[in-house]
Design goal:
The chain is globular. The chain is mainly alpha-helical and about 220 residues long. The chain has 2 domains: about 120 residues, Hypothetical protein af1432 (Orthogonal Bundle); about 70 residues, no CATH class. The chain binds fe (ii) ion (2 copies).
Length: about 220
């Protein structure tokens, strides 16, 4: 997956932090499994940039980019409290401290610490709300790929895994159709995005086709 963030017209300090994230932070996710690694982070970044352009508030997309890039970095150490570990890793980052203001650091750290679902309705800023929604996989292809990768080590043959993904995809529909319970921004555009995801999750032929095109 390609990151769609256009960074050619940014102020100098923002270019430096974006380059740092691209060169040193995103590659760290390669150490996580394929379902939770850089594929998820790139989608979260792309979703954040899309949502930032849809909300009525004026958003600094570089802050969204950075928050999305660091939000799961704590998973490299532990899972249970990874939102706080991720926020702390970000706050300790000397390059981030050099190129961002104290206020920007706080906005990003709060958004990272608030990203998990138990914080629904309690996100401290619009940046936290954007990150929380962006964290949900909504790209149909990414959704199927993540389900497939998640099963990569399972003791099943490929056909059984495909059937399991198709079955699990049906269960995800309940979540896709629960707009108010899981979404912070609740934008009209998110309904369109959800519809596209639903269409694929309900279609075994499309799911099979995506899996068949995954490069190994
Ligand atoms: Fe997370
Ligand atoms: Fe995440």
């Amino acid at each position: 997956m390609i990151i769609t963030y256009k960074d050619d017209k940014l102020p100098e300090n923002e270019i430096k932090i974006v380059n740092h994230v691209k060169d040193y932070i995103i590659p760290l996710y390669e150490d996580l499994d394929l379902a939770h690694g850089s594929l998820h982070i790139k989608e979260t970044i792309n979703n954040s940039i899309i949502y930032a352009g849809l909300v009525k508030e004026e958003i600094n997309t570089t802050l969204c980019f950075v928050a999305a890039a660091y939000h799961d970095i704590g998973l490299l150490h532990e899972r249970k409290f990874h939102e706080y570990t991720s926020a702390q890793i970000f706050l300790n980052d000397i390059v981030a401290q050099t190129h961002l203001t104290e206020y920007e650091m706080k906005i990003i750290a709060d958004a990272i610490a608030d990203h998990r679902s138990h914080n629904f309705g309690k996100r401290r800023s619009i940046y936290g709300q954007i990150l929380a929604d962006a964290d949900h996989t909504t790209d149909p292809e990414t959704s199927v790929r993540r389900m497939w990768f998640y099963r990569s080590e399972w003791k099943m043959n490929d056909e059984q895994k495909i059937q399991d993904v198709i079955e699990y995809a049906q269960k995800l529909i309940g979540w896709v159709d629960a707009p108010l319970s899981r979404w912070e921004l609740n934008l009209p555009e998110q309904i369109v995005i959800r519809d596209k995801l639903r269409e694929v999750l309900l279609d075994p032929v499309k799911i099979r086709d995506i899996i068949n095109h995954i490069e190994t």
